[in-house]
Design a protein that fits this description.
By secondary structure, the protein is mostly helical. It folds into 2 domains: 97 residues, no CATH class; 136 residues, no CATH class. It contains 8 helices and no strands.
Length: 258
């Protein structure tokens, strides 16, 4: 278990990275640079001073409003920062200060960006998922918890399984049922967490997606054609596997085959 100072520093670091992830979420879909220009108010375009750009804290001190125009700031900004900080904290508790922690926190950060972009725009940017596949495969050479062959099989099964589902759905209905972004995302996920993680991710994503999709259709009074982005559920499944997957799989086999 890391010491208290390490946990505090890790959370702060994660929240700061979450602030950068907010920039990525806003700019990547618009093909804008994530480096320049600096952050600005989306309402009045006034550049944000460094003291108004402190993760979480600045939002609270400003009461959720821009200092220049007093227009509301989306609560999503501090939520992404808080979420990233908490996941960094959970990762270091789970993995310790290690190369596994660094690699998997980068992976989690990519999933956070993908999740919110998919929620906003119903797209999964190739800019993240396609490079993520070879990066995941190469990372397996450094990870203590994953072999390269498992990562390679995971990428093939991840991309291949969703491709077959999408192809079969199109063959039967003549319509597109799953975007290519989901296919590439699951291939990336498989490259980082292996083939066991892919099956776990598909199960969690399908179960949670079906449940939440049904609730949304009920409250939105939509029919079965109501589109719910699948990327956030795949990301949820992959993150759940990182923290709970091996233990849950062991528990399931122990119960099922005892």
């Amino acid at each position: 278990m890391p010491t208290i100072p390490i946990l505090i520093v890790t959370f702060i670091m994660g929240a700061c990275i979450g602030s950068f992830l907010n920039v990525c979420i806003c700019r990547i879909p618009e093909s804008k640079s994530i480096v320049t220009p600096g952050s600005a108010c989306p309402r009045c375009s006034t550049p944000i001073k460094f003291y108004d750009n402190i993760p979480i804290l600045s939002f609270l001190l400003l009461l959720g409003k821009c200092r220049s125009c007093s227009e509301p700031i989306s609560v999503r900004y501090p939520l992404v920062e808080l979420l990233t900080g908490l996941l960094a904290l959970a990762s270091v508790i789970r993995l310790g200060i290690s190369i596994d922690f660094i690699i998997y926190f980068i992976f989690i950060s990519a999933l956070i960006v993908i999740t919110f972009i998919d929620l906003d725009h119903q797209i999964i940017p190739d800019l993240i998922s396609l490079p993520g596949i070879p990066i995941g495969l190469l990372s397996s050479l450094l990870l203590a918890s994953l072999y390269f062959t498992d990562a390679l099989i995971g990428a093939l099964i991840g991309g291949g399984s969703l491709f077959l589902i999408a192809w079969g759905y199109h063959l039967i209905t003549g319509k597109e049922g799953m975007g290519g972004g989901d296919i590439k995302l699951l291939a990336m996920i498989g490259a980082f967490i292996g083939w066991k993680g892919v099956f776990f991710t598909i199960f969690v994503a399908s179960a949670s997606g079906s449940l939440i999709g049904a609730v949304l259709m009920l409250f939105a009074q939509k029919d079965l054609k109501f589109a719910v982005p699948f990327g956030p559920f795949l990301s949820l499944g992959a993150i759940a596997y990182l923290f709970f997957g091996p233990e849950l799989i062991f528990w399931y086999y122990h119960i099922a085959f005892q």
